Task: inverse folding
């Protein structure tokens, strides 16, 4: 029997192989894919457990993923468990092939101050390309999925003020660093992220003379969006008191200084150091910058925060209006693990609701575009043609203007079908600049037309679907544009 | 005189706005010249529009002769002109002034994008907001979805599109849910567009200027007439930064603008009643001409509003005159009317007042009496 480790290695071999040049499928890849079993797609009428779980934890299955996951253990349940466990520990997954593709974006590794040396359009394009390439190629798929989730949760419009330069640092130091780690740590990193201090005006939340009104923007969104939730039991008074507690934190900006741009600082002279009353607790006077820690302690593991986050996670991974039973279990796991995101997810993936409720979610445009490229093993540069497609579908990366981030409800995305069909046709017809598919090789490696259909749909087609696909001149664009492929 | 909106009752949700941005700072004093003001003729000895050449609008203003195709729209009361209009940005920098005007303040997103998101009248469709050109104008940022197009031909589903569309209609018909419904709407919109593209048009393409601008207007008209849910379209027209040999630059630009708008009006027919066109620019030009037969960056300029609901045939905005006391800074026509107060009444025909005021955060609106 082939061990799990072997399959991890196989996975990276495949990724490395697909990184090689463009004109044809490399022979070693073809032989891997056509060898007896590894590629065989699902052979059930309903979406099977493997397609379901991998579809939820990733940006879609590539040719061979199904078999790879299955073959780890003859017991399907255990095989899927292995897959979930592995995805929850991304650091243990070898991702060198994907990392190699991202090396060209050196600017994304720069410190906040150095980011100002780049043109803002370059940074936005690089960030977007890197997100697409990670989602397309990374073996750490669940991590990439959670990066997308937190990018909306801690939304920053890169078009506002100096976010044009600083969002790249936030993406790296807040979102990607903590995506499967500790929520309290992520929250604190976000609170003092230079981009967030710009986006929600924390940098101008200053208390000078008595009677000054602090800027409440960040305080409000911290409670409403980042932690407790709009019905989380806080009052306007709490918002004002949180704003007082966070006054004095700022970021060096171009208008004020020449050196140390993007540096986050605490100015005691702008801080309201009096006593505060927040959520029924007293923060004593005189704590200075440690007021921030006191606020974080009050909100990051609050029961309302757990409920709010659990609801959003269950919405992402189960269904738009998730069942309360699952939400409660996830919220409890969140609190008992001290806000460990991977632990909360482990509990979520173990709920019966997660296993039972299948194909209920509409892929958002980013998910759809990437999953189509993964399903077809498309080689892509993640470049401008894709950025443009995403904008047409209303999903321009890092450009949602208001703090709630892109919606995770089907209703928000139903108007995007025309462009999804357009993309499906363009991708299958090799009319997307910088992206290439090999439909003939794809069919071969999947064992022909039936294999292709089962692979893209995650199940065998129904009789009605079969008739429609059979009548089509080319089934690939139709499969990618089909209702079944819009869901996960 | 009654504008189009006066004679027809159109529900706010059925209305659309077309924003034409004259990039480069168009000289309002040439487009709509204060020919009755001696100070104008003194400041513009070479570049002035002579009283006998312009098309008289009222006791003060005459339209530049190259804008003559607009005269019937003025006469019918569909076209209004707003003079001495602009933004609070006084940098006289193209970038800064456009940036401020399109964002409408320091908030994230653009004014039009914010408006469309707050308006939220229906599922944003693939063709709710269309920007003709190569990139999304800042004004449309933050729209629920925005499509940048050079041409409607971009919709092609490739070879065998007809077959694919039929198959998709069949596939989605199996879905008895919101997704199936959305697919039905999409197929319907595509077919309507196709029919329109092949149907004989009330006016020929040749009536439009033969350039990107004319083509963008023609396709905008096509989208409006097809009823595919267009809420807003943006079109840029460049060539207004007339630092030297101004006439040579502006005359062809005015020609395109006027012929384009006149063709658009004829093409739309009765659909003009639910469509409002607004023409704007980031700033006007210095009152005094320079030594290179041009004009430098200034402040106030003009805006045009055409179509549904507009009470036209009038120059609005309050003319400050060109006396030395009236001018601003280095000798510029001041901004008497903030451009938001021109956009606001138009948007008010499309959505509730609270939606309009929230589209312009941090600004206290005082809309001019532009619509009826």
Result:
């Amino acid at each position: 029997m082939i061990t799990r480790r072997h399959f991890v290695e196989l996975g990276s071999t495949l990724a490395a192989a697909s990184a090689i040049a463009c004109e044809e499928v490399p022979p070693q890849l073809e032989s891997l894919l056509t060898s007896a079993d590894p590629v065989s797609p699902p052979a059930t009428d309903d979406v099977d457990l493997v397609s379901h779980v991998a579809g939820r934890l990733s940006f879609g299955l590539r040719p061979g993923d199904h078999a790879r996951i299955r073959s780890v253990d003859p017991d399907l349940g255990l095989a899927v468990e292995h897959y979930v466990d592995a995805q929850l520990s991304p650091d243990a997954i070898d991702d060198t092939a994907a990392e190699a593709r991202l090396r060209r974006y050196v600017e994304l590794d720069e410190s906040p101050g150095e980011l100002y040396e780049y043109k803002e359009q370059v940074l936005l394009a690089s960030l977007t390309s890197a997100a697409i390439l990670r989602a397309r190629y990374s073996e750490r798929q669940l991590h990439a999925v959670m990066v997308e989730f937190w990018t909306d949760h801690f939304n920053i419009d890169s078009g506002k003020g100096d976010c044009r330069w600083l969002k790249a640092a936030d993406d790296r130091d807040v979102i990607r660093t903590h995506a499967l780690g500790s929520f309290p740590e992520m929250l604190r990193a976000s609170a003092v992220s230079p981009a967030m201090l710009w986006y929600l005006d924390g940098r101008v939340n200053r208390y000078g003379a008595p009677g000054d009104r602090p800027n409440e923007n960040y305080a409000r969104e911290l409670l409403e969006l980042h932690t407790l939730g709009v019905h989380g039991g806080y009052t306007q008074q709490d918002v004002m008191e949180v704003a007082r507690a966070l006054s004095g934190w700022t970021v060096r900006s171009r208008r004020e200084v020449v050196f140390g741009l993007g540096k986050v600082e605490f100015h005691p002279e702008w801080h309201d150091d009096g006593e505060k009353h927040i959520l029924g607790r007293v923060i004593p006077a005189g704590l200075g910058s440690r007021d921030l820690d006191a606020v974080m302690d009050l909100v990051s593991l609050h029961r309302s925060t757990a409920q709010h986050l659990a609801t959003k996670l269950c919405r992402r991974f189960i269904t738009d209006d998730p069942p309360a039973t699952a939400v409660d279990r996830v919220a409890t796991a969140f609190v008992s693990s001290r806000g460990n995101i991977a632990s909360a997810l482990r509990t979520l993936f173990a709920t019966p609701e997660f296993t039972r409720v299948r194909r209920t979610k509409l892929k958002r445009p980013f998910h759809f575009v990437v999953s189509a490229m993964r399903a077809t093993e498309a080689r892509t540069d993640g470049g401008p043609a894709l950025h443009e497609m995403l904008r047409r579908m209303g999903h321009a990366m890092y450009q949602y203007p208001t703090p709630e981030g892109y919606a995770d409800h089907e209703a928000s995305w139903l108007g995007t079908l025309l462009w999804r069909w357009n993309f499906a046709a363009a991708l299958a017809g090799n009319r997307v600049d910088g992206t290439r598919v090999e439909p003939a090789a794809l069919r071969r490696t999947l064992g022909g037309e039936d294999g292709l259909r089962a692979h893209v749909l995650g199940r065998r087609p129904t009789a009605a679907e079969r008739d429609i696909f059979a009548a089509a001149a080319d089934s690939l664009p139709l499969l990618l544009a089909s209702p079944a492929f819009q869901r996960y | 005189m009654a504008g189009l909106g006066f004679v027809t009752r159109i529900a706010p949700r059925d209305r659309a706005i077309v924003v034409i941005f004259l990039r480069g700072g168009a000289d309002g004093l040439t487009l709509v010249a204060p020919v009755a003001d001696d100070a104008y003729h003194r400041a513009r000895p070479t570049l002035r529009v002579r009283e006998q050449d312009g098309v008289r609008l009222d006791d003060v203003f005459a339209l530049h002769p190259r804008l003559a195709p607009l005269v019937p729209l003025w006469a019918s009361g569909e076209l209004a002109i707003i003079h001495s209009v602009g933004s609070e940005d006084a940098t006289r920098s193209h970038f800064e002034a456009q940036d401020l005007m399109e964002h409408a303040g320091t908030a994230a997103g653009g004014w039009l994008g914010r408006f469309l998101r707050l308006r939220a009248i229906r599922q944003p469709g693939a063709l709710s907001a269309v920007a003709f050109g190569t990139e999304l104008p800042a004004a449309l940022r933050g729209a629920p979805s925005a499509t940048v197009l050079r041409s409607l031909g971009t919709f092609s589903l490739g070879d065998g599109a007809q077959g694919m569309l039929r198959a998709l209609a069949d596939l989605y018909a199996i879905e008895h849910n919101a997704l199936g419904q959305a697919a039905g709407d999409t197929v319907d919109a595509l077919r309507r567009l196709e029919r329109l593209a092949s149907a004989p048009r009330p006016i020929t393409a040749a009536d439009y200027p033969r350039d990107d601008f004319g083509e963008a207007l023609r396709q905008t008209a096509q989208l409006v007439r097809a009823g595919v849910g267009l809420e807003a379209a943006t079109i840029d027209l460049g060539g207004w930064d007339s630092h030297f040999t101004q006439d040579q630059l502006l005359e062809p630009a005015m020609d395109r603008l006027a012929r384009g708008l006149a063709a658009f009006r004829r093409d739309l027919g009765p659909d003009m009643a639910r469509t409002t066109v607004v023409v704007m620019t980031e700033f006007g030009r210095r009152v005094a001409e320079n030594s290179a037969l041009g004009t430098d960056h200034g402040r106030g300029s003009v805006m045009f509003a055409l179509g549904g609901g507009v009470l036209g045939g009038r120059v609005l905005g309050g003319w400050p005159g060109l006396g030395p006391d009236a001018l601003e800074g280095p000798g510029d026509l001041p901004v008497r009317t903030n451009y938001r107060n021109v956009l606001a009444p138009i948007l008010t025909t499309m959505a509730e007042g609270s939606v309009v005021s929230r589209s312009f955060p941090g600004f206290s609106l005082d809309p001019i009496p532009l619509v009826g």
